[in-house]
Design brief:
Layout lengths: L6 H30 L6 H23 L20 H25 L3 H25 L15
Helix pairs in contact: 1-2, 1-3, 3-4
């Protein structure tokens, strides 16, 4: 990763790399989510995976523009629990969306420029909208988060 630049830009780039890592996990995890859902219920998982692939690709391009090495994806990731049913799949999707939300919040904290802040706010909102649907499918209450991406008390 290129380390030259103002300290704020270096921190912003590091936070972008963290978001990219979380997006890699989400893309991979949605394969498991979709596989655990019946075919007629897979559309939200497919849409979420496409959304995460798109933002992942945008982050790779942004990092390359900055002269920073994008974080490579891993061959696989550990699941936080077994996914044996549609409810488990929805619960995993919640974990994935909350993971990217936390990374986007960290980027908001480290953002040195308007473009990074705008991207983070947009994607944080999109992740929470997806998470609401998955929380409902998992039977979680409440289905919304007052402060997405921040630790819940």
């Amino acid at each position: 990763m290129a380390e030259d630049g103002a300290p704020g830009e270096v921190a912003e780039t590091a936070a972008m790399r963290d978001v990219l890592s979380a997006e890699h996990v989400a893309v991979w995890g949605y394969g498991t989510v979709g596989a655990a859902l019946p075919p007629e219920a897979r559309e939200p998982a497919v849409a979420a995976e496409v959304a995460h692939r798109d933002v992942r690709d945008r982050l790779v391009a942004l990092l390359e523009t900055r002269g920073a090495d994008p974080v490579p994806r891993e061959a696989g990731y550990a699941l936080p629990f077994p996914v044996l049913s549609a409810v488990d799949a929805a619960a995993l999707a919640v974990v994935l969306e909350e993971g990217v939300s936390a990374a986007w919040v960290r980027l908001l904290d480290q953002a040195a420029g308007t473009a990074a802040r705008e991207l983070a706010v947009t994607e944080l909102g999109a992740a929470e909208v997806r998470a609401v649907g998955w929380r409902a499918a998992a039977g979680a209450i409440p289905v919304t988060s007052a402060f997405p991406g921040l630790p819940q008390a």
